[in-house]
Every structure is written in C-alpha cells, then in structure tokens.
Design goal:
Elements: E1 4-10, E2 13-19, H1 29-43, E3 50-55, H2 76-96, E4 101-105, E5 108-110, H3 112-118, E6 122-126, E7 130-132, H4 144-154, H5 156-164, E8 168-170, H6 171-176, E9 182-184, H7 189-201, H8 205-219, H9 238-249
Parallel strand pairs: 2-3, 3-4, 4-6, 5-7, 6-9
Antiparallel strand pairs: 1-2, 7-8
Helix pairs in contact: 1-2, 4-5
C-alpha cells in the first residue's frame, strides 16, 4: 500500500487528508502526485473557499516513504526526477493555490511534513507535535527548492537546527519562532483547525484569492510594482459592493 491523498468538500471547506496511517502518513511518490492533482483541481473549484490539510489517525506526516528509496535515490536522474517533479510538483501546486490553506498538525510533522506545512497559510498544531527534518541521519540533504521553502517559512535558524543537528523541536518552540499560528491541547486540534477554516470560508472569497496572489508575488521577490497594474481591477465587482453595502446597512455580508 502506497497510501493516498483524499479530497472531500463540505460546506465550502475542502478537506485534504494525507492517508498512510501504518506509516504515520509518510509520503509515497504516488501520494506526491495525488497531492498535486488535488490542488490543481482546487485552484479551479468555485464552491470551495478554504482548504484544511490534515493527516490520518492522529499524525500529520512523518516524512517520505523510505521503503521506496532503494528504487530511485541512488541514481542522479531518478533522484532529480523525484524531487523536481514528484515532490516539487505537489508542493508548488499547494503554493499556487489561491484558496486559503489551514494545516491541522498532529503527532509527527517531519521532513515532508514540514514541507507540506510550510505551504499552508495558517498552521494549527497540538501541544505534543514533534517537528523536524532529521535526514542527516539518512545521509542526504534537503533538496534546494524544499530547503528554501522551509527556511523561508520556519526561519533560517530553525532550518539550520533541523538540517544540521537533526534536531526535533516541540510545538511551543515553533510557535515562539513564528512558524505556528496557534498551539492547542492535542484533543482540540481537529475542532480548532476546522473552526478556522470555516471562519475563512465565510469571508470574501475574491478578496482571499487576491490576497493570496499578492502574498505569493511578494514572497517570490516580485515587489509591489509588479502588483500595481491590476491591483484595483476589483473596484466594480459584486463582492466589493456587497461588502461595503453590508457594512453600511449593519448586516452580515452575503458573499
């Protein structure tokens, strides 16, 4: 069994579940490809307004599926294909998605789990979660695109500690360093993450997409000037008019 990535959409929230519970949801090659397919689909989905990413059975993701590694890691071209196409294909599809993405982080969040969590906009974790990327113990580095992603989101100091010391850090530490947005008792993580995703889904969807596009451009180093030509194209949109009208009428907006 190579595991799978499951997509269910309920009440404007798309639930994306990493499912390989016997391996703490370690990512197989097939799962990376499915992750890409799911987020490409969500990018064009007009009913979903927020995404909730979680792992099956109390763990987020324990890394990559090491049982597959003998089949491709020891040859330059196949190793490059794995990281540049399978892994980065999934991660880049997450990063390119204009829907807000909430991570429900439980149990183990290692290696690939850190990378997937780094693609999420809001990160909710349990008190007992363990974070790390101890691949130095396995004799290989983190691929360049993946290292840049984790360093940008978790911070260079944290990336250095995880990659050079094979350090495993706890949730309060990652909260203090700004990687997490909130830490909850382990039993409350599922409900807390869903509540945040549902709250986002009730807000203006067009504004969320535009904010995601702007934040992605800024994170990619494009600068504000690249955003200005189309920054105010939403002026006459129905959503813009409804938000202002609802505020003036002291009623909830109907987005």
């Amino acid at each position: 069994m190579s595991g799978h990535v499951r997509l269910v959409i309920e009440d404007a929230v798309a639930r994306v579940t990493l499912s390989s519970p016997a391996k703490f949801n370690a990512m197989s090659r097939a799962m990376w490809r499915e992750l890409r397919q799911v987020f490409v689909q969500l990018q064009h989905h007009r009913e979903a307004r927020a995404v909730l990413v979680a792992g099956e059975a109390g763990h987020f993701c324990a890394g990559g599926d090491i049982a597959e590694y003998n089949g491709f890691r020891f040859h330059h071209e196949s190793l490059r294909d794995f990281h540049e196409n399978d892994v980065w294909g999934g991660l880049s599809a997450m990063l390119a998605c204009d829907l807000p993405v909430v991570a429900q982080i439980e149990g183990n969040c290692m290696g690939a789990g850190m990378e997937i969590a780094s693609c999420c906009d809001i990160r909710v974790a349990g008190q007992g979660v363990r974070f790390g990327a101890p691949i130095a113990k396995l004799g290989f580095p983190m691929a360049p695109r993946e290292a840049e992603l984790v360093a940008r989101e978790a911070g260079l100091a944290t990336a250095r500690q995880m990659l050079l010391e094979a350090a495993v850090l706890d949730a309060p530490t990652l909260l203090a360093r700004g990687f997490l947005h909130t830490v909850l008792p382990d039993a409350d993580v599922s409900a807390g993450a869903l509540q945040r995703a549902q709250g986002i889904s009730r807000l203006a969807p067009q504004a969320a997409r535009l904010n995601k596009q702007a934040l992605r451009a800024l994170a990619g180093g494009q600068g504000v000037a690249a955003l200005l030509p189309t920054a105010y194209d939403y002026a006459d949109s129905a959503e813009h008019r409804e938000g202002i009208a609802a505020f003036m009428a002291k009623r909830p907006p109907n987005f």
